[in-house]
Amino acid sequence: MVQPGCLGGDNREMSIHSAAVWPELVALNADQVDLSLVDRFVADPQRAESLSFALGDLWVDVAKHPIDAATLDLLFRLAKQRGVPEFFAAMIGGQVVNQTEGRPALHTALRASADAVIEVDGVNVVPEVHQTLGQMTAFTDALRAGQVTGATGHAIRAVVSLGIGGSHLGPTMAAEALAEFAGPLTVRWAANLDRADLTQALAGLDPASTLVVVCSKTFTTAETLAAAEQAQAWLAAGVGDDVSAHLAAATAAPERAEAWGVPADQVFTFPEWVGGRFSLASSVSLGLMAAIGAERFGEMLTGMRLVDDQVVAEERSVPVLLGLLDVWHRQVRGAASRAVVPYSHALRRFPDHLQQLEMESLGKSVSVDGRPVEGPTGAVIWGAAGTDAQHAFFQLLHQGPEVIPVDFIGFAQPAGGVNDALMANLLAQAEALAIGRSEQEVAATGVAPALVPHRTFAGGRPSTVILAQRLTPSVLGQLVALYEHRTVTAAVLWGINPFDQWGVELGKQLAVRIADELSDPESSPNHDSSTNSLMARYREWRNPS
Ligand code: F6P
Known about the structure:
single chain, alpha/beta, six-stranded mixed beta sheet, five-stranded parallel beta sheet, 43% helix, globular, binds 6-O-phosphono-beta-D-fructofuranose
């Protein structure tokens, strides 16, 4: 069994602080604390060149972080001492890296080429992956050609994909990101337990020509099963009781999907070793493939593979670099959150996907050996599309007391057409955050002295700028894999397991108990007084007499 932070390297302790290079990193940061980004740019005319990196079709500029070549050397030594390269080799090679659940985390196998060999328990898993991809391709090709018919003989023209968390956020984000590549089908998504979500998704659709895809790795998730039943009833009201032709499923539990009523040949399976938030390349993206077609979907997988290959082949890979910077900002410089701002309407849901990817993976307080982690772990991830975000939360980024690193993502040819103003805004915000405006500069503009402090910008606010020419399926795949590996890097550095999510369990269990109590008028709930009183208030307001 492979443990993050314990593979190879010269440091077999679980704490990042015990890495030999850690004191040097902390000392270098303390030495440079008064060195502004302005000073750094002035001192080194080659700064942008030496701190910008190509990753496939992505251009990643980290020159607006308070780092230099010495910081990078120390950070990559840290990665080595924490066993990051060995962890990636083990993960991609199919070893058990998800210790608390005793299984591999092989999402990379979902995008491996057909001739790759990746063994789990001595069996090559790649043929099974490609068999499912073939099944998805045949089905979505037929759907897009109008050859799949429902109970009444009408061709299916709409697909409604149900799922939540990893069975929803990634595929929905990707379908919106790649909307310009969408074909003839109407594809909609619903996740929320609030029935209004599905009601809205079904609005205007004809049950006779609608396919409902139930996406759930476990096929036990309460929200998804509730939506599936609501959808089943809607279908039955339109086409009669036998709605099986209108149902498909994406799951790691095919027997449960079949028992629920999905015909076996419309169940698309994926293995247990794919974590929900890492499952974009799995069959939970059946709706995405239906929207953009198998060829475009294949291009997305190729983009992901390109990044997978870099993370294994290059010790100084871009995903590892970004993971190192995330941990450094969090632990050494105390940044409690990070904002992600795509200057792209198409990519506006990327922060939502990253919230689950990063916060469910890195929101841990114990290391893999069960001991408390020293210091903070995953940052709060938040964000929205630029330029909208500029008019919502950028004030706090520029002048709030806390420094919040930002990821800016932009495209030379966005879906809406070349737009210099859009790119100018991205570049201007990154520059303003980094360079700021000093009191002297403000005073020199003739501003009233009382207003000078209000109009001063501290600067020194770090950001990463990721540029690509166009948001193609391949570029989207590269972006997603970049963030996946960045997240895993941070987990390995901290010595935590990025692949489990025990923290979501307690609330789920309590919800079952509370739901029973709410529906039983005879029950006398025995919770804390706040919960008891809120339950009483809810009951009173739910059915006013
Ligand atoms: O939020 C908890 C979680 O288990 C996620 O990790 C997962 O993506 C989501 O629920 C949905 O789970 P499933 O795909 O099994 O329905």
